[in-house]
Amino acid sequence: MSDTTSILTIGLDFDWTEANRGDKFDVSKIRAAVSRGLEELKSVPGVESDVYFVVPDKQGLFDEIAAKLRDGHGGKPWSGVIVGWGVRGVDETTPLFEALMNLIKDTSPSSKFLFTGPGGVQFEAIERNFPHLKRPA
Length: 137
Description:
Elements: E1 5-12, H1 14-21, H2 27-41, E2 47-54, H3 61-71, E3 80-83, H4 85-88, H5 94-107, E4 112-115, H6 122-129
Parallel strand pairs: 1-2, 1-3, 3-4
């Protein structure tokens, strides 16, 4: 087993969310919480992470995500793929969520599925699935 746990986070693009859901959500608050969570990952020993922000109506979206999944981290499969709450927690994006899950399963079958809640705390999802990883003291 490698010493590095590689995590790809897939979440909704904040600008798209502002334009399409800004009346339903406080996007600046969500952006801040997710940014804090992603920043926290940089301080966790043994974790390497990357992010792909989804624009649901973008042409070629699934080709881009498939390439990101196939490329993996340093040429190796992602240890885990986080699918954010904005993709899976809102009825309107259920078809996107289903398509992403099938794409992840087919393109990166060894990757674990990880899910964040509405708070955007990535490390909790990672810790549940990779309990050997710890926040720095």
